[in-house]
From TrEMBL:
Entries under Pfam families matching the protein: Polysacc_deac_1 (PF01522)
Broad class of the protein's primary localization: membrane
Keywords, comma-separated and alphabetical: Carbohydrate metabolism, Cell membrane, Cell wall biogenesis/degradation, Glycoprotein, GPI-anchor, Hydrolase, Lipoprotein, Membrane, Metal-binding, Signal
Subcellular location: Cell membrane
Entries under PROSITE patterns matching the protein: NODB
Keyword Cell wall biogenesis/degradation: yes
Protein name in the entry: NodB homology domain-containing protein
Any GO BP annotation: cell wall organization
Length: 248
């Protein structure tokens, strides 16, 4: 009798453990860690760390070539996101994809779950106010992620943790010719990392890269487009855009 009771207790304990573990495992599977496109005829150009002063310059270059890009925004890094409401709305209206890059560009792997939630929701709140949309794509600062972050992202409804396979190194403030050399090495299906906060990136490197890649026959698309059937709408609709005098 005692052995049967012990076995039953062990079974109950194991069942409870599996129930408690299952949601975390499921949440991790819900978020794809993406480093490449699924279509070798496409390239995804992406820029981090804005909004700042040069996103519209980049958007203009993209428009000239009939291309789309992806911008991952912080809330309060180079500037406060609320100082760029009109620019953000214009980028969205032009068909570019906008994603979350964390409120203050912290290495997410150094944070607790609560701190991760804080970094994410502050940017989400800004998107909801400005666009009426909640982002579903996240790029971790420094490309640094762990299982805890993936679980938090899935809990918040994200579908993609977007990394890259070509880094233009402009974030290290290298000379423009170094970043151009990276574009020389880009292949079909690559996701290219740049930073929209530098004049030289927007008005020297990006025009070079776009012209080069288009001359090779690549289609330049937003990252959710290049994922093909794996991709999904990169937002969750939350209502109409709002108006207000918001501050960081």
């Amino acid at each position: 009798m005692l052995s049967k009771i012990a076995l039953n207790a062990a079974a109950v304990a194991l069942s409870a453990l599996l129930v408690s573990a299952a949601p975390t495992q499921l949440l991790k599977r819900d978020v794809s860690v993406v480093t490449r496109c699924n279509n070798d005829n496409q390239v995804a150009l992406t820029w981090d760390d804005g909004p700042y002063n040069f996103e519209q310059d980049i958007a203009g270059r993209l428009a000239e070539s009939g291309s789309k890009g992806t911008f991952f925004f912080n809330g309060n890094n180079w500037d406060c996101i609320y100082n760029h409401v009109d620019e953000i709305r214009a980028l969205h209206a032009a068909g570019h994809t906008l994603g979350n890059h964390g409120w203050s560009h912290k290495d997410m792997t150094t944070l607790s779950a609560d701190e991760m939630h804080d970094e994410l929701w502050r940017v989400e709140e800004a998107f909801i106010r400005i666009l009426g949309l909640k982002p579903r794509l996240f790029r971790p600062p420094y490309g640094s992620y762990n299982d805890l972050l993936l679980s938090v992202l899935s809990e918040r409804g994200y579908t993609g943790c977007i990394i890259w396979d070509q880094d233009t190194q402009d974030g290290n403030e290298v000379p423009a010719y170094v970043s151009k050399g990276v574009y020389d090495q880009v292949n079909g299906g690559d996701i290219v990392l740049g930073h929209s906060v530098y004049d030289s990136t927007a008005n020297d490197v990006v025009p070079y890269g776009i012209n080069l890649l288009k001359s090779k026959g690549f289609e330049l698309v937003a990252v959710d487009t290049c994922l093909g059937s794996q991709g999904s709408w990169p937002y969750e609709y939350m209502g109409e855009p709002q108006s207000g005098n918001w501050q960081c």
